[in-house]
Amino acid sequence: MDKTGKKIQKRDNPNDVFITPDTLVEEHFNLVKPYLKYCDIVLDPCCHETQKYYKRFNKHLDWCYGSNEATEQEEWCDGLVDWCEITKGRDFFEYKGFDEGTHDRDTGEEDIAPVNAIVGNPPYSMIDAFLDKSIELEPRVISYLIGFANITTKRLEKMEKAGYKCVEFHLTKVFKWYGMSLLIVWVKDTDAKSVVGYDRKVHR
Ligand SMILES: C[S@@+](CC[C@H](N)C(=O)[O-])C[C@H]1O[C@@H](n2cnc3c(N)ncnc32)[C@H](O)[C@@H]1O
Description:
5 helices; Rossmann fold; 22% strand; two-stranded antiparallel sheet
């Protein structure tokens, strides 16, 4: 095993909690922004107590919705950006949609709106589960920050079969993280051409 591999084995961060640097959150936000539409609801599925993605998107959408200035939000506030974080009691795998805070007059059930975009930095050991749950929620945009080595042809095929085309594939480097990092954006039912080619052959 090389030096980097040994360091990773001994890292003090065994629980998949890697906090995204602010500059990379900004880069990710800028990559996704062209695919957002007015009135979209965005979900950060695993925001951590830092809520970096949540706050960045909230700042943008607050402006879209007419306050005319980008305002910092209170901590753990709710808005048209929603969040999940397991350590705060909101499990992404239990998530059904954005709770509008109102109830159906007839049934008394909570009004739940579907989310339009899911964006974040998922736990790297749960990528398949996060992709499956994201597909189940049927947003128009799914975008994740993952390790470059974590993008496999099987995962690309899974997304394509679910109707998602890869429209952005951006490689970058985080100083303390192993290998290159990938910002990937998938859009559902678009005429755009996928920016990634692949096949599932195994050459021998
Ligand atoms: C790689 S960290 C990313 C943290 C933060 N989003 C960021 O970009 O800096 C993954 C986060 O996912 C959270 N997490 C793990 N399982 C989860 C689940 N089932 N639902 C919601 N959050 C989860 C962890 O507690 C952790 O905060």
